[in-house]
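Q: What residues go here?
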């Protein structure tokens, strides 16, 4: 069971998709309608002077307590992980931006469009502006994952280089040892071979001396 759950989780991570939404310029989210699966991430890349706030279709421009980015600077990113395929209606809470048509929908339901929401928003008098960040994180989820992967690759490569160096060192050491041992062995063998004839000649002469002595002793005895 544990392996099945782990495999399912990994497959979900691999299958997850990152959707890019540009906030601005002007009173626009681009695109203003998209479909995202559960586990997908929507990344909002900001232009200056806007925010991302969620609300209900039948209460346009009013915060529903779920998603709020706060106003971010030009080029900053706000990432939202999609936890269900229910519709999410987004608006900009800066005064008059929602009424001016700055809205989008994630997973639009059948029979309701972003144009319907914008039309209803244009008839509202004010927008609710949350005072804290919720429902997402400031920063790009995809770049953080990439950074971790790169770090892991770098560490692996370094370890591989170290192993290669160790292998080269070991090879050099073994080669040196083999060379030294071989030279010493050859030298010792050569010396032993050279000494052998000298020892053999000495033994022959010694034996001849004994034989000669015995002959002279025999002659002296007979005489």
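A:
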């Amino acid at each position: 069971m544990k392996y099945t759950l782990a495999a399912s989780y990994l497959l979900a991570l691999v299958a997850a998709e990152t959707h890019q939404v540009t906030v601005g310029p002007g009173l626009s989210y681009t695109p203003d309608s998209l479909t995202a699966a559960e586990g997908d991430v929507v990344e909002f890349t900001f232009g200056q002077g806007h925010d991302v706030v969620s609300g209900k279709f039948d209460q346009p421009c009013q915060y529903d307590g779920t998603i709020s980015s706060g106003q971010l600077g030009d080029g900053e990113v706000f990432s939202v992980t999609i936890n269900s395929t229910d519709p999410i209606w987004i608006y900009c809470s800066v005064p008059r931006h929602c009424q001016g048509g700055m809205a989008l929908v994630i997973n639009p339901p059948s029979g309701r469009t972003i144009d319907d929401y914008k039309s209803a928003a244009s008839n509202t008098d004010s927008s609710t502006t949350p005072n804290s960040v919720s429902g997402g994180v400031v920063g790009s989820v995809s770049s953080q994952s990439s950074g971790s992967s790169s770090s892991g690759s770098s560490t692996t490569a370094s370890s591989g280089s170290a192993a290669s160096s160790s292998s080269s060192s070991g090879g050099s050491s073994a080669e040196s040892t083999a060379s030294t041992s071989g030279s010493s062995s050859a030298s010792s063998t050569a010396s032993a071979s050279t000494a052998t004839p000298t020892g053999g000649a000495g033994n022959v002469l010694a034996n001849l001396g004994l034989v000669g002595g015995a002959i002279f002793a025999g002659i002296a005895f007979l005489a």
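A: Context that may help when evaluating the design: Confidence is low (pLDDT under 50) at residues 148-223. The CA atoms of residues 123 and 219 lie 153 Å apart.
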